[in-house]
Amino acid sequence: MAKKVTTAEDKLRALYSLQVIDSQIDKIRIVRGELPLEVEDLEDEIEGLRTRVNKIEEDIAGIDQEMSNKRNHIEDLRQMIKKYEEQQQNVRNNREYDSLSKEIEYQGLEIELNEKKIKEFNAQKVHKQEALEASKKRLEDREGDLEAKKSELDEIIAETQNEEQILMKQSEKMKKTIEPRLLNAYERIRGASKNGLAVVPIEREASAGSFIKIPPQKQLDVAARKKIIVDEHSGRLLVDKELAEEERDRVEKALEKELKKATK
After folding, report:
1. What is the pLDDT of residues 185-218, one digit of tens each?
2. pLDDT of 5
3. What is the pLDDT of residue 52?
4. What span, in angstroms and rounded, lies between the C-alpha atoms of 117 and 109?
5. What residues does 239 pair with on adjacent strands?
6. Is residue 62 over pLDDT 90?
7. For 18, which of 67, 135, 174, 188 could close a Cys bridge (C-beta 3.0–4.6 Å)?
């Protein structure tokens, strides 16, 4: 079992080491956490584009069928005109002739109307084909993006899986060295922080990430490492810059050592 820390400095070192480890875990999960969402968004967009492509293709097929129907109808009308013209050759009076002429004229108008409809359908088809090509191109691009994102995600998972597991083990090991009261405070502060920082060093006379200066006496108290000090503005636990650099370097070297062992 890990040895419990006793002095205030030991407690500060343990707390900051835990913060360094947990922050590295956060970074891994943030990078990985964004990619699955991007992959999911691309998959949803691709599904929508495929539905759109299918719908446009169905529309074009429907337009083609309508034009075919109109052409067949025009052919039927022409056959009727031909029939009426033949009948005109055998009429018995002007009234019959005029009646057939009106039918011929009417069928001619019907042909013109159907030809106009065919032109309108053709214009619709051109518009639909342009939309289809654009949708197919976007679909192709998005499928390429999805493949790249999935590959990137797989690589990150492969690269960071061992590191994350080692860091989690180190985090649990470090937690065992910290008294429950301090550990609860650390986890409470960390949980309330947007960036997960509960323990921060003093940088430029302020707690890291803050612009509010810490009084000189409090800075000296932090540097003395004789007690646990909380920044009254951010609510975070404070350590001096030197201690932070030492612990960060120690944790990084320990991680590097563990990763080398894991890859052997």
Report:
1. 999 999 988 889 999 998 888 787 677 888 889 9
2. 61
3. 96
4. 12
5. 201
6. yes
7. 174
User: Can you read off the two tokens belonging to residue 248?
Assistant: 């960060």
First-last CA distance in the chain: 26
Q: Do the beta carbons of residue 14 and residue 183 sit within 8 Å?
A: no
Name the CATH topology of 8-263.
Helix Hairpins (1.10.287)
Helix (H) / strand (E) element for 238: namely strand 237-239
| CA–CA separation, 38 and 27 (whole Å) | 17
Q: Are strands 237-239 and 229-230 parallel, antiparallel or unpaired?
A: antiparallel
CB atoms < 10 A from the CB of 242, how many? 11
Q: Is 209 left (phi over 0), alpha (psi -120 to 50) or beta?
A: left
Element (H, E) at 240: none
CA-wise closest residue to 20 among 247, 190, 201 = 247
CB atoms within 10 A of CB 127: 13
DSSP β-bridge partners for residue 202: 207
Q: How many helices (H) and strands (E) does the chain have?
A: 5, 4
| DSSP, res 213 | B
Q: What is the DSSP letter of 90?
A: T
pLDDT in tens, 68-87: 999 999 999 999 999 999 99
Q: What is the pLDDT of residues 240-250, one digit of tens each?
A: 999 999 999 99
pLDDT at residue 1 in the model: 39
- Structural domain boundaries in the chain: 8-263
- Nearest alpha carbon to residue 245 among 209, 208, 201: 201
